[in-house]
Amino acid sequence: YNERHIEDICICCGGFEIHTQHPLFHGGMCAPCSERLLERFFLCDDDGYQADCTICCWGKSLIMCDHSACHKCFCEECVDTLVYPGHAEEIKETTTWICFMCAPQRVNGLLKRRIKWRAVLKHFYDQESVRKSSFKSVQVLLGFKLTINFVPDFIEEWGPFDFIFGSTPPKTNFFLPSKAWYFYQYFRILQYGSPKEKNKKPFFWLFVDNIVLDEEEKDAASRFFQVREISAHPVASHNETRMHKRDYGKLALKLIPSLFPSLI
């Protein structure tokens, strides 16, 4: 490191074949690390924190930021290599740790945060998406015909899916055969369409209740899905009254920039 500029070193893996510059910190990135960051930077775990290290997107022993508005993680390898050896252990011994993206101090050892990192991150996704000839295809199950004797035998054949969406019908006086039946059927489809346990690929699902389930049915849905519902933004119904939709699911909205970089 003493004989080279940080821009000439991949700060993710230490390689010297530089493809581009890291969007958040001063330093280079090789092509494989750039590809990995492009695909995984916006992935989040069920607890809302980043699934991977903010710097390299592959370190497994992660330290989480304690700032209430931050969900970033840093792996011990990057911290010890780029700041100084043993710093990761020092962080773990502290009660509260504010990460390198949140702290006022921009420079920590070799780790120097970019001033306008948000703009640089957007530019990184813009240029990398243009460079790549195409993104990997995403398999989505958006809709299905529900009948009383419906058995989703075809779903395993059509899958595996990356995203499965379902919903109750619009709020009307007619439900076949009952309101709760729709999320029961969706839950069955989810069992067929979800990746197998050994498959580590990202998978997301979303079930929308169009304000038709009562409290008991909502509780049942939460038990089946093992998550509590969240209220979406208000939407106007046909008679112009205001109402909310209730959503259940594992949906990483931050994945959108990796599919449509111009939206970041």
UniProtKB/TrEMBL annotation:
PROSITE patterns: ADD
Main location, first listed in the record: nucleus
GO cellular component: condensed nuclear chromosome; cytoplasm; ESC/E(Z) complex; heterochromatin
Single GO MF descriptor: enzyme binding
Pfam families, alphabetized: ADD_DNMT3, DNMT3_ADD_GATA1-like
PHD-type domain span: 1-130
InterPro entries hit by this protein: ADD (IPR025766), C5-Methyltransferase (IPR050390), DNMT3_ADD_GATA1-like (IPR040552), DNMT3_ADD_PHD (IPR049554), SAM-dependent_MTases_sf (IPR029063), Znf_FYVE_PHD (IPR011011)
Annotated GO biological process: autosome genomic imprinting; epigenetic programing of female pronucleus; male meiosis I; methylation; negative regulation of DNA methylation-dependent heterochromatin formation; negative regulation of DNA-templated transcription; negative regulation of gene expression via chromosomal CpG island methylation; oocyte development
Keywords linked to the UniProt accession: Metal-binding, Nucleus, Zinc, Zinc-finger
Subcellular location: Nucleus
PANTHER family in UniProt: DNA (CYTOSINE-5)-METHYLTRANSFERASE 3-LIKE (PTHR23068:SF13), DNA CYTOSINE-5- -METHYLTRANSFERASE 3-RELATED (PTHR23068)
Protein name: DNA methyltransferase 3 like
